[in-house]
C-alpha cells in the first residue's frame, strides 16, 4: 500500500428531505449565493422553487446563472466569474449533475484570480484562493459532489481539461436520491458507466498490496452492476437511485485511490472524444473501456482480469485463466449494451477522421503512464478497435 | 437505505514516515500538548523519542501521562483532566492503541467540565466543549483513531460504558503500519477480531437496501480474513499490517454504518465480560460472536447468513441454504481459533457465577434492539453456549 493523506471533509446530507439542511450549511459561510444550474430540469422536479423558498425564508440572497452545458464551457465559467466579482458572492451553489458542479468549481477558483479563468484550468497551481461550494446533486455520475476536481471544455482550442485544488471539494453536498427519479434512461445508463469507469481506473493499477482498496472497488462495481439496470428500467426505484448516488460519490472522492497510484487511462482518451465531438462523457467511456481492456490484457496483466472476472462478474473460478479474463471483458461490454449505450463510435457518428490529431493531443504532455503505458499509436489502436 | 449525515473530518497521514506530519497538525491548534500513553512499548520501538524530538524541534511543550490501562479506567481519566486543567493544554496527543485514544477522548471531554468526568461517560449529552485530539496509532483494532466514540471502565461500579461526541473524532491521526510490527501475536489476533466484530455488528442489521454498505462490509471482512493470519505469523509484513490498520479505521468511522441502522449486539454483551473480568475486548468478542450468530440464526435471518457465507467465506453457493448458513458460522469460529484466540469462556477462567448479574446489567436500559431482540434470558443463553 502506498503512503497517502486522507482528507475528505465534505459533509453529506443524504436521503429524502435532505434539502432542509441547505440553509444551515450556506449560513456557515455567508448570506449571498450564486445559484448555478443547467437547463430547466430542476424547475420541472420542483427543486428550483424549493431551494428559492428555503433561501428566502433564511434571508439568503441569490444571483443566478443558468445554461451550464453538459460538457461545461469556459465561456460559461467566465460569465459566472463576472457575476461573482460584481455581486460579492459568499457561496457558490450548484444544483445539478457533475457538469454544473464542475462549472461551479471553475467559477469558485476564478473568483479570486485577476486573469482569464482558463489559465487556472490549464495550470491548477495558479489557484490560490476559492469561494466555498455547497452542491445539490441531481445526477449520479461524476462524483464532483465530493471530490476536488473538475473538467472544463474550451471549444475554441478543442480542449477538455481536468483541473483541481483541495479547497474545491464542496463544503457540503445534498444528496436526495428522489431528485434523480426523472433522469432519462440514457443519462442513467451513461452515469452508471461513468461511475464504473472511475472505479475501474483505480482498480486496474500496477499497485501491489492495496488489497483493501481493490475489494472496495469490487464492492462498488457490484453495486453499479446490481442497481444500474434496476434504475434504468424503473427510474423511481429509491434503493437503486440511492445506491447509485452514494456509489458515485465514493467512487472518486479518494476512498478508493488513497494507497494506490498511477495515472488514469480511459478518461484522458475519452476527453479527446468529448472535446472533438461534444458527446456524453459516460457514453465515450463505455465505448472505449472494453476495447482498452482488450488492449492491455496480456501475460503481465492477466491475474488482475481474473480477479475482476471472479470477484465482480462471478465467473466460474475453475475455468482457464485466459477464458476468465476474456469473459470478464465480454461481460463488461455486454453490461453496457444491456443499458442500451452505443457500443461503437460509428453508432454516435464518429469516424476515423481525427484519430491522429486526438491521439497526438492526448499525449501532448507525455505518454500515459497508466495500467499499461499508452503512447500515440496505442491510443489510435484503441480508437480503431472502438470504431 | 436510511437517511444519513456523513461527516468524517479526521485527516489521516498513512504510511512509512507519516509521523513527520505530527508537528504541523499540532500547530494548527496550539503549542502545548498532553502526551497520553500506556506502558513502555512506545519507548521500545523508538516512537517516544521520535515524538519528543519532533515536539522539541518545533517548540511544542509537552506534559505526560502514562500507564493507561488496556481497559482504560476513569481514575486515569481523572488524573489526566487534573493535568489539563492545571497546565493549560492545547491539544491531547494519545500515542498507542484504542485504549490510549479512548482515555484521551475522555480527558478531552473532561477538560471543560467542572464535575467528575464519569458523569460524561454516563451521559454524553453533558459534553459541551472538548480539546482537540491528534493521535498516533500503534495497534489496529478499535478504530478510535477515526471515530467519535470511546469506552471507559469503572472498576468500582463494575461498569464499562461507551460514550461519544462528534467533536471527539481526532482532528488528525498518524497511521504508520511499522509501529505495529512489534504488536504481540495475541494482540494482533484480538485486534483482528475486534475489527471484524465492528464490521459484523453493522453487517448483521435489519436494514434493507443498504446494498453498497453490505458489499463494503464484505470487502473489509475479506481484508481481515486475508491479512489477519499473515500479520499473526509474520509481524513485520508491511502489507498485512497496512491493510489491517486501514481496515481498523474504516470499519467504525461511519463509512459502513451510514445508511444502515440498529443497535449493536455483541459489543454490549462483551462489555459486561470486560467489566467483570478485565479481559481483552477482542478475545471476548471472538468467543461470543459465533455463539451469538448461532442464537440469531433462524428462518428470518438465514438469507443474511447465506450472503455472508458465499460472499465472505467463499462457500459453494449451490449448497443448501441451511448448510451455507451453518458453515459460515463454523468458518467464523475456526478463523478465530486459527489465530489461537481462546474459544470459550472457561479457557479464560470465566464460569457462570456472574451470568445473571451481567445479563441483568446489560439490559438495564432496555432490551437490545439489535439484529434480533436480546433480553436478559437471551444473553444468559449466549453466555452459557460460550462457556
Automatic annotation (TrEMBL), chains A, B:
CDD domains: BDH. Residues 188-386 form the Fe-containing alcohol dehydrogenase-like C-terminal domain. One of its GO terms (molecular function) is alcohol dehydrogenase (NADP+) activity. The keyword Oxidoreductase applies. SUPFAM superfamilies: Dehydroquinate synthase-like. One of its GO terms (cellular component) is cytosol. This is Uncharacterized protein. It comes from Clostridium thermobutyricum.
Amino acid at each position: 500500500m502506498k503512503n497517502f493523506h486522507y482528507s475528505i471533509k465534505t459533509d453529506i446530507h443524504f436521503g429524502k428531505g435532505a434539502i432542509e439542511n441547505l440553509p444551515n450549511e450556506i449560513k456557515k459561510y455567508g448570506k449571498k449565493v450564486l445559484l448555478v444550474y443547467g437547463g430547466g430540469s430542476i424547475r420541472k422536479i420542483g427543486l428550483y422553487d424549493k431551494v428559492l423558498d428555503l433561501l428566502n425564508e433564511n434571508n439568503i440572497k441569490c444571483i443566478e446563472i443558468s445554461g451550464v452545458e453538459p460538457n461545461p464551457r469556459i465561456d460559461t465559467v467566465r460569465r459566472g466569474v463576472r457575476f461573482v466579482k460584481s455581486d460579492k458572492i459568499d457561496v457558490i451553489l450548484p444544483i445539478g449533475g457533475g457538469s454544473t458542479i464542475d462549472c461551479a468549481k471553475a467559477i469558485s477558483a476564478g473568483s479570486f484570480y485577476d486573469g482569464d479563468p482558463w489559465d487556472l484550468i490549464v495550470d491548477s497551481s495558479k489557484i490560490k484562493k476559492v469561494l466555498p461550494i455547497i452542491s445539490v446533486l441531481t445526477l449520479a455520475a461524476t462524483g464532483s459532489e465530493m471530490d476536488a476536481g473538475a473538467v472544463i471544455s474550451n471549444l475554441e482550442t478543442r480542449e477538455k481539461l481536468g483541473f483541481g485544488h483541495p479547497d474545491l471539494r464542496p463544503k457540503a453536498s445534498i444528496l436526495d436520491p428522489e431528485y434523480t427519479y426523472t433522469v432519462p434512461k440514457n443519462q442513467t445508463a451513461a452515469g452508471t458507466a461513468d461511475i464504473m469507469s472511475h472505479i475501474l481506473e483505480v482498480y486496474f493499477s500496477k499497485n501491489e498490496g492495496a488489497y483493501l482498496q481493490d475489494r472496495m472497488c469490487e464492492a462498488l462495481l457490484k453495486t453499479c452492476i446490481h442497481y444500474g439496470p434496476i434504475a434504468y428500467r424503473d427510474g423511481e426505484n429509491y434503493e437503486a437511485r440511492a445506491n447509485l448516488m452514494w456509489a458515485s460519490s465514493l467512487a472518486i472522492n479518494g476512498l478508493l485511490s488513497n494507497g494506490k497510484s498511477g495515472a488514469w487511462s480511459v478518461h484522458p482518451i475519452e476527453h479527446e472524444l468529448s472535446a472533438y465531438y461534444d458527446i456524453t462523457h459516460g457514453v465515450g467511456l463505455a465505448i472505449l473501456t472494453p476495447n482498452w481492456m482488450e488492449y492491455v490484457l496480456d501475460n503481465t496483466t492477466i491475474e488482475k482480469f481474473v480477479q475482476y472476472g471472479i470477484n465482480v462478474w462471478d465467473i466460474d473460478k475453475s475455468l482457464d485463466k485466459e477464458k476468465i479474463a476474456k469473459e470478464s471483458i465480454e461481460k463488461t461490454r455486454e453490461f453496457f449494451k444491456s443499458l442500451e449505450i452505443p457500443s461503437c463510435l460509428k453508432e454516435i457518428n464518429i469516424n476515423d477522421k481525427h484519430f491522429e490529431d486526438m491521439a497526438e493531443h492526448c499525449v501532448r504532455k507525455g505518454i500515459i503512464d497508466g495500467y499499461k503505458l499508452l503512447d500515440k499509436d496505442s491510443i489510435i489502436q484503441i480508437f480503431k478497435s472502438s470504431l
